[in-house]
Amino acid sequence: MTRDEMSFFLEGTNGRGIVLVHGMTGAPAEMRLVGRYLHRRGYSVYAPLLAGHGADLDSFRRSRWQDWLESVQGGAELLRSRTDAVFAAGICVGGKLAMMAADRDPDRVGAVAIYSPCFGYDGWNVPVSYQLLSPHIGWLSHVPFLDRLNFRETSSLGIKDDRLRQKIGVMTGEGVLESFPGKGIVEMRKLGNALKDRLPYLQTPTLILHALEDDLSNPRNARHIAAHIGGPHELRWIKDSYHMIHVDRHHKEVADYTAEFFEAPHAPARP
Questions:
Q1: How far is CA 122 from CA 88, 128, 227, in A?
Q2: Residue 198 and residue 38: Cα distance in Å, rounded?
Q3: Mind listing the pLDDT tens digit for each residue in 62-99?
Q4: Which domains does the chain have, with CATH numbers?
Q5: How does pLDDT run across 133-162, given as a tens digit for each residue?
Q6: DSSP of 43-71, one letter per residue?
């Protein structure tokens, strides 16, 4: 499968489009479940492959969060040429990229939905070594050996449902990387700091969805965004799911909440 084939587009019927943004070291394939439900509700859906993703760790190491953001902005540009209104939704790092894309071009992105936002891996199932590294990643990023360290997902893969976990577990052939280098944690922190600086000024209507049992990202990450964002927003909790709420047991609920938020009066269609 080539990099171009990893991205996917579904033509809708309601004149509205949604850019779906996968997570760090993930791939567009992980957005298919929620994408199909949104498409059934009439939306055109485009899930682009983020820069540096879908190939190997060396390619990933050469990318920065700004490169990932350009991929999201490119996706919004494509949908703008095909629809009357554009929205964005993303998981974890993908959600933060969606928010930054809206901040950079608020006239293009009418509203955003973020799933399981994360400023640092601090959930209940995160290894102690990750949690010890996270607060110090700023100065550790200057240590050469950090980029050579590879970190792996937890055994749950962020998914509570056993059957769905098995489906996601075989996605390495669709561009999902099995591990990520320290560079990824550094870029995630830089992106998080950039977003925190912009939160008070961000006016794009934003839906925040977070699992109460999130194993990778503590719910306080969602609460931080809700407490500091400047524009209209809504925080909703997902039960009986782990971090990957867009593929876990309640992915249809996630899609429904997203569509309803994008159809509400506070998220007007942008010309």
A1: 25, 9, 19
A2: 29
A3: 999 999 999 999 999 999 999 999 999 999 999 999 99
A4: 3-263 (3.40.50.1820)
A5: 565 555 455 555 555 555 555 566 678 887
A6: -EEEEPPPTT-SS-HHHHHT--HHHHHHH
Q: What is the mean pLDDT of residues 103-120?
A: 94
Distance of CA 117 to the CA centre of its chain: 8
Sign of torsion, CA 226 32 75 9? negative
Q: Both tokens of residue 203?
A: 């006016």
| Single-letter amino acid, residue 2 | T
Indicate the SS3 state at residue 123: coil
Residue 42: other Cβ atoms inside 10 A: 13
Cα gap 88→115, rounded to integer Å: 11
Q: Can you say whether the dihedral through the CA atoms of 130, 131, 137, 143 is positive or negative?
A: negative
Mean pLDDT for 97-121 is: 94
CA separation for the pair 29, 42 (Å, rounded): 20
Report the distance separating Cα 214 and Cα 244, nearest Å: 8
- The closest of 34, 202, 227, 188 to 115, measured between CA atoms, is 34
